[in-house]
Amino acid sequence: MQCVWHSTDLLREIMSFQLGVPYDTHTLLHALRSLVWDNADVLATLPPALAPIHDIFPAWFKVHGARGLKRMPFSIALELFYYGLYYGHLDVIRHFCDKLPVDYVEWHLVIMSGNVVAVKFLLDAYPDGCFFQTIERAIEHGHLGVVRALRAHGVPWPATAWKVASQHGRADIASYLDAYKCPWHEHWRGEVAEAAAEGGHVDVLRPVRKRGLILKLTKPLDHAMLILCDNCDGEFSMPHIGLDAVPRGAWFCRHCRPQITGALPEPLTDDDDDDDDGDNASLGSKKRHVGSESPKKKRRV
């Protein structure tokens, strides 16, 4: 009996009721009041700070539910609202959205959650409060469903949509951008290719290969310029196939070119038995005659 009365859990339980709240509520309140983040960089410092809250809140809410939210003091309302937004907890968002302002930080937190239902709830509650930077944030975190919801609500494309998708390797979102005619400007070509190259995201450029993108991949031991075949999506090293510059228009590999042009495959020389050759800059290039000497001129006697 002595060990029971002196157990830590029992003492905490008794002390928590001295404060007028159950022990689990006291623990949650203490964690919420201990939250610290940098307002100058809130979107980077707040999510890690909310992780301890997420270790406590789901079990607490399972016991206390929405009634427990009503009993929470207003002094921790902002912290709890931020938690609900970032983790897409619809009951928390619904409870606090009409009591606290919904502005830049709040929109970005709910976008980062990836919860389409929570995003649609805020769009219905604040139809004019969303802005185009939220789509950029959704692309960055790879939430295609959120991008669709924002576009359906009429939120315009951000100017950096293509660059963000390539920088973070969001191939599915790049396909969506291409299918739904996200604005594209020619001067973005180098920026998109460079952003994808830094992370080696070749698959991001597949949806936009018809735009003539060439990706430069940096590897530990070599540097290769890759070009994609417009028919089979095959990847070919430009130096390996003899291409010194980007060809204009569509480009097809040696295997696909006969199917597209209806021509016979070109014969290979002894020095050209690689995956492809470099005379594919244009489909109208002249064929080479391999293995036959040029005709000699007759000498007059």
Query: What is the CATH topology classification name of the largest domain?
Result: Serine Threonine Protein Phosphatase 5, Tetratricopeptide repeat
Low-confidence stretches: 212-224, 267-301
Largest sheet: 3 strands, antiparallel
Report the helical percentage. Answer: 40-55%
User: Beta-strand level of the residues, as a percent range?
Assistant: under 5%
List the domain count as a whole number.
2
Query: Any idea what the shape is?
Result: elongated
Distance between the termini: 129 Å
Which secondary-structure class do the elements indicate? mainly alpha
Q: What is the oligomeric state here? A: single chain
Please provide the ordered H/E string of secondary-structure elements.
Answer: HHHHHHHHHHHHHHEEEHH
- The neighbouring-strand order within the major sheet is 1-2-3
The whole-number mean of residue pLDDT values reads: 77
Q: What is the strand tally? A: 3
